[in-house]
Specification:
281 residues, alpha+beta, Protein Transport Mog1p, Chain A, 7-stranded antiparallel beta sheet, 3-stranded antiparallel beta sheet, 13 strands, 16% helix, transmembrane helix, transmembrane
Length: 281
């Protein structure tokens, strides 16, 4: 939003109008009021000059003084001034406060697992299809604040894995009741933990409301970059988080995947997993 100050306004009495940071003032820019007697004297002198000119100028020149035809139109042309938009507002950029620094995140004390039943992983009321590819193995992902966690992992390079999983987080553990705010807390905990040692920056790709089998949720997708994997030619992960409301007011169901940036095969393997996400209750 524009800062308080005077802005150009052709519709204002003095051609300028004051913006106080929230609304437009009713009066234009102040200026010194001229002396009334001086104004009257100037006006009378101007009228006298016009009368003398008409009497003195020859009639042959008189047509020149005739008013020209007014060809103007009452319809405005060109861009018009909009008092609701006095100046451009810069696009906000994501704030990375807390990222890369250890913060207090909940610990569920649950034992994570990796159970594939009928080709699907289930947890927290959500389920996903098993990722395809022989590199994927049934092994839990240790996300401390995730309850009923069920996941699979894939090795990408020594010390670096990709993973998909589902589970739930608890509002009573400190997560926000809003799915969008809880998703932000979730990725903040991930980037400030041992999961992303060497964190450098985050780029938000998706941040929007979604529906999962008729239930309201929020999807937050970010590129999380690290600076300690250059030897493996790895920039970081695309972290995809979907937080879904549940009938339990203390629980939010969560889908989470970490896919190596610019790893085309890894991305092809995980995309169908995301598309298979559903609410089973």
């Amino acid at each position: 939003m524009a800062q308080p100050g005077w802005y150009a306004d052709p519709t204002a009495p003095q051609g300028r109008r004051y913006w106080d940071g929230q609304r437009w003032a009713d009066t234009g820019a102040p200026r010194r009021r001229p002396n009334g007697w001086i104004t009257l004297a100037v006006a009378l002198a101007a009228v006298a000059a016009i009368i003398i000119g008409i009497l003195v100028v020859p009639r042959t020149i008189a047509p020149i003084l005739a008013a020209p035809e007014d060809t103007r139109t009452s319809r405005p042309t060109g861009p018009q001034w909009n008092e609701l938009d006095p100046s451009e507002t810069p696009t906000p950029t994501p704030v990375e406060t807390g990222f890369g620094k250890p913060i207090d995140c909940p610990v569920s004390l649950d034992t994570p697992r990796s159970d594939v039943v009928n080709g699907r992983l289930s947890g927290g009321g959500l389920s996903i299809a098993r990722p395809q590819g022989k590199e994927w193995i049934e092994s839990p992902t240790y996300i401390d604040w995730l309850h009923d966690s069920n996941s699979m992992i894939r090795s990408i390079a020594p010390g670096w894995i990709s993973n998909v999983g589902v589970g739930y987080i608890k509002i009573s553990d400190g997560f926000a009741a809003s799915p969008s705010a809880a998703a932000e807390q979730f990725v903040t905990c991930m980037a400030s933990s041992g999961m992303f040692l060497g964190f450098t920056k985050r780029e938000i790709l998706w941040n929007e409301e979604v529906m999962v089998t008729g239930r309201i949720g929020w999807r937050l997708t970010s590129n999380v970059y690290v600076g300690n994997q250059q030897a493996n030619d790895i920039e970081g992960d695309t972290v995809d988080i979907v937080v879904v409301t549940t009938p339990d007011e203390d629980r939010l169901a969560v889908y989470v995947s970490c896919v190596t940036i610019d790893h085309a095969q890894n991305q092809r393997e995980v995309q169908p997993v995301f598309e298979s996400l559903r609410w089973d209750g």
